[in-house]
Amino acid sequence: MENAIKSSKNEQEKVEKKKILERLNKSKYVLLKNGEDLNDEQKIKLNQVKRVSPSLKIMYELKEKIRGIFNKTKDGLKGLYKLSIWLLRARKHYPTSHNTIVRWLDEIIAYFDNRTTSGVVEGINNKLKLIKRSAYGFRNFDNFRLRCLLTWKFKY
């Protein structure tokens, strides 16, 4: 009798887990997409995920909150204040991101004032590294230099 009760409980747990997994299935894109860009079907999926996983609900709301901070704040002091509040709430759910933001806080706060990023420079560095990796067979530096200049269509 006791074994039948245990197996019944195990079956119920399996059914519950299966329902949860079905609701979480194919939810990655919905969680990563901007909230205002979701269509009706994606909003339904997002609500399912939020109901199934309170942790994912909090993480999604934190993601949307930081997007709002960066999109709407135009003053460094206000940005610092809002970001500090966000960091306090996000530390548990996003420990790596929290540490990175704290480490780069000065540069991040400068974004609120200037609205400039280092994205272009990062892209150039990435392209140079790619050329360097593919240039394994170049015999001298001049060939590497020419390849770099041609990439950005500079005259040599």
Describe the structure.
This protein has 156 residues and is mainly α. Helix content is 78%, strand content 0%. Helix 3 packs across helix 4 (54-72), helix 4 (54-72) runs antiparallel to helix 5 and helix 5 (76-90) crosses helix 7. The termini are far apart.
Task: Give a brief outline of the structure.
This protein is mostly helical and 156 residues long. The protein has helices at residues 2-24, 28-32, 40-52, 54-72, 76-90, 95-103, 105-114, 119-134, 141-151.
Strand content: under 5%
- H-E string: HHHHHHHHH
In angstroms, what is the radius of gyration? Answer: 24 Å
Task: Please provide the count of β strands.
Answer: 0
Question: Uncertain segments of ≥5 residues (pLDDT<50)?
Answer: none
Tell me the distance between the termini. 87 Å
Helix and strand arrangement:
Layout: H1 2-24, H2 28-32, H3 40-52, H4 54-72, H5 76-90, H6 95-103, H7 105-114, H8 119-134, H9 141-151
Helix pairs in contact: 3-4, 4-5, 5-7
Keywords:
156 residues; mainly alpha; 9 helices; 78% helix
